[in-house]
Amino acid sequence: MFVFGLTKRLPTSVSCISNTLRTGRVARYITQVTREKTFFIRKRELVKFKNAFSYDPELHVVLGPPSTGKTALIHEVTSKGDFNPLFINCRDGQFDTPRRIYNSISSQFEPFFKKYTRHFKKLLEQGEVSYTINDIQLKVKPFGVDPFNVREITSNDVTELFDNIGNALPNWTCWKGYDIPPPILVIDEANMFSQLGSSENGEVLLKSILNWMVVNTKEKGRFHIVLTSSDSFFFDWIVNLLHIPHATPYVVGDLSKEEAEEYFEEHVLPRFECKELEGKFDHVRKITGTSMLIIDRYVKEYKNCDGKLEDSKFSIYESEYNKLYRGLYYPEVLRYSYKTNPPLWKDYDLIKTMEAIVNAENQGYILQYDLMKEIGSKTS
After folding, report:
1. At CB < 8 A and 24+ separation, what contacts does 16-19 make?
2. How many alpha carbons lie under 13 Å from residue 45 in its C-beta half-sphere?
3. CB–CB of 91/192 below 8 Å?
4. Dihedrals φ, ψ of 293, to 5°?
5. Mean pLDDT, the chain, as a whole number?
6. Residue 95 bridge partners (DSSP)
7. Which CA distances in Å does 113 have to 87, 110, 215, 217?
8. Per-residue confidence (pLDDT) for residue 85, from 0 to 100
9. Nearest CA among 28, 30, 19 for reference residue 72
10. What distance in Å separates the CA atoms of residue 365 and residue 356, rounded to the nearest whole number?
11. How many CB atoms are closer than 10 A to CB 212?
């Protein structure tokens, strides 16, 4: 169960990605929960999300708590041959300086332009694009003769690169005539964009990048762009920068009870060889909820404890319990008495919150603003 600040409406199944604004389209998802790349596949839902990327280009923003499978979802949908995916992972700091932005974008688009050089020449001859991009145009030329004496890349270089890429790409519909999968740009953990806004020049560059995304999706219809983020306020942040709602938000939630039980029985237990837990999902769910990550971790800890894991000793349960305890009692009664800040909420605030969670069991979410009305902004 999670609290989201921008969700307007989700269907009864928690395991969904819901388009919360204009179109009303709904697509479920596929999630990756371990480094072994174990997928819980639901073909019908994959088709629905694939269709969302098959319409006219849009700027998609995929939101959700960490480890709910946002990245795995997008990779799975876009890597099946119907698209030419271009992936950028902002976790690696690829959008925090002009040089890294330039290198990240050029390294993704350069192979794409190389692969279809012959087709781009035809598009140029037919007037579908302004010009073609070659290797030289995707790199900043060094100053002087020394190949190691490369000048620093500036924001102007980045802006020029983005403009060149946009002008060299045709409208989305042109790819069908050549039987070529269209490009789709995927930027993971795009909330890292905010690192650019720490300086005046960086803020100007950031707005230029976002405007470029709008131009190439909504205005020119050249390709889809997908931004994923674990920050629930990321969408509001983008809209405030653009001043217009050109982005389409989706929220990735947990599994429904039925799906979580299937995942537990058919995928997790066989992997950890815990047959003794078969048929006990109702009990496990009281501890883990329907989060794939938490279910996975519970069974792993159960296995590591040779089947003797007490519910109260499950790491996530214990951590959350301690947070609640520290929030309810003054630091004087706790071990760390040097912390003098009083709790922000009372025991009846906890009761109201728990009641809201119980009432939202089949709804799958709690509106942050509704919770704030009940217990106040500081306590929520």
Report:
1. 16/251, 16/253, 16/364, 17/49, 17/62, 17/73, 17/250, 17/251, 17/252, 17/253, 18/250, 18/251, 19/52, 19/248, 19/249, 19/250
2. 20
3. yes
4. -60, -45
5. 78
6. none
7. 15, 5, 20, 19
8. 94
9. 30
10. 10
11. 19
318 vs 198, higher pLDDT: 318
Q: Give pLDDT tens digits for 314-329.
A: 999 999 888 777 766 6
Q: Which of 251, 249, 223, 252 is nearest to 238 (CA)?
A: 249
> Which residues lie closer than 8 Å to 313 by C-beta, 6 or more apart?
305
Q: Write out the two tokens for 340.
A: 């003098």
Q: How far apart are CA 20 and CA 34, in angstroms?
A: 29
Q: Which amino acid is at 294?
A: I
Say if residues 183 and 83 touch (Cβ distance below 8 Å): yes
Per-residue pLDDT band for 39 (boundaries 50, 70, 90) equals low
pLDDT for 96 equals 80
The CA-to-CA distance between both ends of the chain, in Å, stands at: 15
Q: What is the mean pLDDT of residues 53-80?
A: 86
Residue 28 has pLDDT above 60, yes or no: no
3-state secondary structure the chain: CCEECCCCCCCCCCCCEEECCCCCCEECCCEECCCCCCEECCHHHHHHHHHHHHCCCCEEEEECCCCCCHHHHHHHHHCCCCCEEEEEEHHHCCCCCHHHHHHHHHHHHHHHHHHCHHHHHHHHHCCCCCCCCCCHHHCCCCCCCCCCCCCCCCHHHHHHHHHHHHHHCCCCCHHHHHCCCCEEEEEECHHHHHHHHHCHHHHHHHHHHHHHHHHHHHHCCCCEEEEEECCCCHHHHHHHHHCCCCEEEEEECCCCHHHHHHHHHHHHHHHHCCHHHCCCHHHHHHHHCCCHHHHHHHHHHHHHCCCCCCHHHCHHHHHHHHHHHHHHCCHHHCCCCCCCCCCCCCHHHHHHHHHHHHHCCCCCCEEHHHHHHHHCCCCC
Percent share of the chain, pLDDT over 90: 31
